[in-house]
Amino acid sequence: MADLNFIDILNTIVLISIMFGVGTSLTINDFKHLSRHPRAWVIGMVLQMLWLPVIAFLIAWLAPLSDAYKVGLFILALCPGGTTSNFVSFLVDANVALSISLTTVNSFLILFTIPFFANLGLEFFLSEQAESSFSLPVGETAIQVFGIILTPALLGFLYRRYRDINAQKVQQFFKWINLILLAVVYSVKFFFGEQSGGSGISWSEVWAILPFALLLHLLTMFSSYWIARTRSDLSRLDATTIGIEVGLQNTTLALLITATLIGNEEMSKPALVTAVFAFFTTVTWSYLNLRLGRSEN
């Protein structure tokens, strides 16, 4: 793991804060939802944890990008949307319970999937000499992800459980604090040099990565919606929620994995580029899609 700078530490704090906020939105009923509506959840989980990495692997393999960018694009697909996708589902009146249920379970699964598949990506896309310089320790990564993702979410859930009267105020507080902190992290990463904690990304690199980051985002969002809607016969509401979950990745977690745990700023650049547009395209598509469905009824 690379030496931590201020921005890496701030990025970790933001993730902890975000997951605590997610925890305060969870209730026992969200877990009961899993048993009452397992079909939509199972389809969403398969698409998110298997379909998305497969598509990312194929795009990275075929794209004329550097090896580091290929790895970064693939690792991005290993980081489920989390609180960002939950927030989008809330904004557009999608199935928030389904969204949170997917986030709850994939937060456990990524303890194992991220270090396992990330190391496969490093081995496949990097040359033998470069691959030996970068690795993701399975045990250490699982412990880090557990501490940063699951522990604060559990604390948030317990806070909601035993101090429910303050949960709404806490959620609003963390929502705005997290937005401000995220803006700081991405601004520094995007615009500052590596000596100041940034990625040192140039506009030529942005334009090189953008078509493939956009392709990954749109292809996985639209294809997962299509599979859920037409091949699995789910409602438009549930299929749209799954499209949000699969198409919108957790770029903050991807930054932690690439820049902090692996210690390679080049690998973090696909996540940075994706963060510029993914939230807005996801909100626009999901809102229009659900509005179209309501106008047809």
Walk me through the structure.
- The N and C termini lie far apart (54 Å).
- It is built from 13 helices and no strands.
- With 297 residues, it is mostly helical.
- The protein is globular.
- 81% of the residues lie in helices and 0% in strands.
DSSP strand content: under 5%
Biggest β-sheet strands, sense, barrel: none
Radius of gyration: 18 Å
Shape: globular
Quick synopsis:
This protein has helices spanning 6-24, 28-36, 38-62, 67-77, 83-91, 96-125, 128-131, 138-162, 167-191, 203-231, 236-247, 251-262, 265-296. It has 297 residues and is mainly α.
Highlighted features:
mainly alpha, 0% strand
Walk me through the topology.
Blueprint: H1 6-24, H2 28-36, H3 38-62, H4 67-77, H5 83-91, H6 96-125, H7 128-131, H8 138-162, H9 167-191, H10 203-231, H11 236-247, H12 251-262, H13 265-296
Helix pairs in contact: 1-8, 1-9, 1-12, 2-6, 3-4, 3-6, 3-10, 3-11, 4-6, 4-13, 5-6, 5-13, 6-8, 6-11, 10-11, 10-13, 11-13, 12-13
